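Hello,

I think I submitted the biotin job twice by accident. Can you confirm which output corresponds to this input? Input:
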Amino acid sequence: MIPVSLQKCLSQTIVSQLKYYESIGSTNDEALAWIDAEAQDFSLVIADEQTKGRGRFDRHWVTRPGSSLAFTLILKPRANERDMIPLFSPLCGIAVREAVEICLGTAVEIKWPNDVLINRKKFCGILVEASWREGDLAGVVLGIGINISRGSVPPLEFQQFPATSLEDETSRSIDRYEILKNVLLSLEHWRAKLGTSEFMKTWEDHLAFVGEQVRIEHSEKPSIIGKIKGINTQGNLVLVLDDGQEMSFEIGDVHLRPSTSTDLGGPNAG
Ligand code: BTN
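Support: Only one job matched these inputs. Its output is below.
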């Protein structure tokens, strides 16, 4: 049964269709299947527990019952959005950042391209996937996992990047569906500004580690260390290397790490 408090929050958004599950494998998998069955734009899949939640780079994403927000929003990109698919990931980061700051009054940063951090610790992961049908874009799914209570944080040995929950970072009471509502309202707002200078500036203004040394890791190339300068007009991350040379990185198959960490790659890793 759909919780009444969830229904109430969603009635204040433009969510067109809803699927709610007490337990499911992955909300992204369900959303991808729903696109094939003609889901409408702004349809939502949400689950209290995921048993096969997926993260970026084929990692597991653990969602224990009652501990988190785990949901996937389906978008059917409009003609003018089709050249901007890579920007749907930062769109989610911008929306979660804004929603959490509105609800909890806490400073929130975005680790390029889209992890969301409080006090330099990750509390939200984002997995955006496109669905293609006969070479045509059928839809995009925006999968968002937010750690709400302490029980949602993976054990330390599985944390590559320090992880946290909203409960760990605020003394305010947290209503997870109120946060969901604000994320959805922000997604609607920033989607209309996708790729504009205001969108890019907002993303860059809240970027973590600017001016700090980081390491960019690629599965098939040597790591590169440099200081973050910002984001260019395409949304690529710009680093300044030790010799003063600038290098940019596309959103995709790269990891960004503070320059001292090592990758353990466990569940909910960064
Ligand atoms: C990451 O940081 O690696 C991305 C994690 C994305 C997790 C969310 S939870 C809701 C949605 N369903 C999934 O299976 N994954 C995403």
